[in-house]
Specification:
The structure holds two protein chains of two kinds. Chain A is an alpha/beta fold. Helices cover about 35% and strands about 30% of the residues of chain A. Chain A has one domain: P-loop containing nucleotide triphosphate hydrolases (Rossmann fold). Chain A is built from seven helices and ten strands. In chain A, strand 4 and strand 5 form a beta hairpin. Chain B is of the alpha+beta class. A nine-stranded mixed β-sheet of chain B has the order 8-9-7-10-4-3-12-1-13. Chain B has a two-stranded antiparallel ribbon with strand order 2-11. In chain B, a hairpin with a 2-residue loop joins strand 8 and strand 9. The longest helix of chain B has about 45 residues. The two termini of chain B are about 25 Å apart. The chains are: A alpha/beta, B alpha+beta. Chains A and B meet through helix 2, strand 6 and helix 3 of A and helix 1 and helix 11 of B.
Chain lengths: ~230, ~400
């Protein structure tokens, strides 16, 4: 068991009343699993992902990581948790525009290790792993969308996270590139045993998960470890 | 990729914004450095003047100010040279060594110099620093001295000497102008179409004399076509007699003149310096507000523009203190850059404008460099504290939504 999520709720106050974006969700994330979260727009997929990643504070509920309860109210504790255990892959790639591919990875490494030479070597190694060793000094604007997403994946892997969170990682890519990125994520899950939680609209992308969670209006509509249950 | 590298990369990425952000603080520091450079040199000049100026009474045309005299404007008023004789024949006690002068600013090549006509024998070359420079002179003494024997003067600065001779085609050159025109003793130069031989390069005094060319008064009058007119009479008066109303008696003899003492001149100069110091302080206060607000505004705009980047950094594990550090480091770099740039601009302006407008040669004051940097950094960091604090509050999922 990597993470236990217990009774998580996130409530937003709107002018027409309170809305539960995530409503009393409880489930476990097993180590080495590949979880896909699907659901219509506004179902709370991204909100759930943000809470799991410690980027958004829930209104109530608990998260237990490796047997220890996380202090979800502490910004700094969650920042350390992110740098030690979490990698993010975003739909918009989230690369710093004035840093080269290798530097975008190095800024993630710098949080834990200040040795510049070691960080550079590690970053180049990761770029090689995603097939971009000939693009190390390219800026994001000089890379294609697929290449940018591969840099983002390399950065997410920089600190060898236990959990990789992906929010619509193929949302900005064409089908061919989407398959390429999904293959890389699958490879990470299988070869590095990294747990992956991926939010997606795409039924094809959802196929890559071995655990599927379907949300509707913030509630768990379905949860299956059996493949293809929701595909049909 | 350390925080410093990240900050420098970001600064370089937004160069034009950086320049506009630096403008206020650079110009502010530049103005302060410029004013301080001139006022410090001016203060030194007053001090040197006190030591080196032999005369202690100055007679000027009624319409002229002391500034007119030192600036040697082309239109500066004059009065007849015969006034010298009036004073001499008045037999006023306590008046010695009258030194008439005619001064005009002229062009010498591309240089602006003050041509000063002096009379040999009567010119008070009492300035100790001139004497140290080896100027041949006869010793003069004030009639009010306790004894007419020179050795009785315990203070060397009271020993007055007059210049022996100054032929019609001879001239003395101030130190600065000699340096700028690359003149040496024995060389020649042409003043108003007449050739003069440089008989002496005067030692550096730190006063307006460094930018002057001294020639025979009557020759200068002839060259400038002023007739027997002079700009001023410097007089070595006795302090006791001055206290006893000598100035009033002299005003009776020369009612259409302005008679002032060196004390008044120095006092005026000191007041001017004090005014400049106050001006520096006012500018410092202005720059603290304007520069601080300007940098703060820049950092605030920068934070808003970088919400996504800051969100990315927070997402990959950077803590709030890392974000504060990045922004404060940026403010420090801007302060450092603004301080250095302001120092250079202020110093260049002072060195260039000092001789043009204040009539003094200004040298770079290196002590102002660390002061400029320190002030600029303090202002810059102070102005950035609030934006940095607000940046720390940016939600780490700011970048999570699709563009």
């Amino acid at each position: 068991m990597l993470i236990q999520i217990k009774d998580l709720t996130k409530t937003y106050q709107r002018h027409n009343g309170a809305i539960n974006a995530v409503d009393s969700l409880s489930f476990d994330i097993d180590k080495g699993s590949f979880i896909t979260i699907t659901g219509p727009s506004g179902s709370g997929k991204t909100t759930l992902l943000l809470i799991i990643g410690g980027l958004l504070r829930p209104t109530s509920g608990r998260m237990i990581y490796g047997g220890n309860e996380l202090n979800l109210d502490s910004d700094e504790e969650m920042a350390i948790f992110r740098s030690n255990h979490i990698g993010f892959v975003m739909q918009s790639f989230a690369l710093v525009p004035y840093l080269t591919a290798v530097e975008n990875i190095m800024i993630a490494l710098n949080v834990k290790n200040k040795n510049k030479a070691e960080n550079r070597n590690r970053a180049i190694e990761l770029l090689k792993w995603v097939g971009l060793d000939d693009r190390t000094t390219h800026y994001p604007r000089e890379l294609s969308a697929g290449q940018q997403q591969r840099v983002a994946i390399a950065r997410a892997l920089a600190n060898s996270p236990d959990l990789l969170l992906a929010d619509e990682p193929t949302g900005n890519l064409d089908p061919g590139l989407s398959r390429e990125i999904l293959s890389i994520l699958s490879k990470i899950n299988k070869e590095q045993k990294t747990t992956i939680v991926m939010v997606t609209h795409s039924p094809v992308a959802a196929e890559y998960g071995d655990v599927k969670i379907h949300l509707q209006e913030g509630k768990l509509l379905g949860h299956s470890i059996m493949k293809k249950v929701f595909v049909s | 990729m350390r925080l410093t590298d990240l900050t420098l990369k970001e600064l370089w990425h937004r160069k034009s914004q950086l320049l506009s952000g630096l403008l206020a603080i650079t110009l502010g520091i530049g103005v302060i450095v410029g004013i301080r450079s001139i006022s410090i040199v001016s203060e030194k000049a007053v001090s040197v003047n006190l030591d080196n100026l032999g005369a202690n009474i100055l007679i000027l045309p009624q319409a002229a100010s002391v500034d007119n005299y030192y600036a040697a404007d082309i239109d500066a008023p004059t009065f007849p040279e015969e006034y010298v004789e009036k004073i001499v024949t008045s037999t006023l006690p306590g008046v010695d060594n009258l030194s008439p002068k005619l001064t005009r600013r002229i062009k010498l090549g591309n240089e602006s110099v003050v041509l000063t006509g002096i009379l040999p024998k009567s010119e008070i070359a009492s300035k100790p620093i001139w004497q140290q420079g080896g100027l041949k002179a006869e010793q003069l003494i004030a009639s009010c001295a306790p004894s007419k024997t020179p050795k009785k003067y315990l203070d060397a600065k009271l020993q007055r000497k007059g210049i022996d001779t100054l032929a019609n085609n001879d001239c003395y050159i101030g130190y600065s102008i000699a340096q700028r025109l690359n003149l040496s003793e024995g060389s020649t130069l042409t003043l108003q179409n007449k050739e003069f031989k440089v008989t002496k390069i005067l030692p550096e005094t730190g006063t307006v004399d460094d930018d002057r060319v001294f020639a025979n008064l009557h020759e200068v009058q002839s060259l400038l076509g002023t007739g027997e007119q002079i700009s001023a009479i410097e007089i070595m008066g006795c302090c006791n007699e001055i206290t006893d109303g000598l100035l009033g008696k002299m005003r009776n003899v020369l009612p259409d003149t302005r008679i002032t003492t060196i004390g008044q001149i120095v006092s005026t100069q000191i007041k001017t310096n004090q005014l400049m110091n106050k001006l520096s302080l006012v500018f410092l206060i202005i720059i603290v507000f304007v520069g601080g607000i300007s940098i703060g505004n820049y950092i605030w705009a920068n934070v808003n523009e970088r919400r996504k980047e800051i969100g990315i950094l927070r997402m990959i594990g950077y803590q709030k203190r890392h974000i504060y550090n990045i922004l404060i480091l940026k403010a420090m770099i801007m302060g450092l850059t603004g301080g250095i740039a302001g120092y250079i601009i202020g110093t260049v302006a002072a060195v260039w404008l000092g001789p043009q407008f204040a009539g003094i040669s200004v040298s770079p004051l290196y002590i102002l460099l660390p002061v400029s940097i320190a002030i600029a950094i303090i202002i810059s960091v102070t102005g950035s504290v609030i934006p940095a604090y607000m940046a720390g509050k940016i939600e780490s999922f700011s970048n999570m939504q699709e563009d």
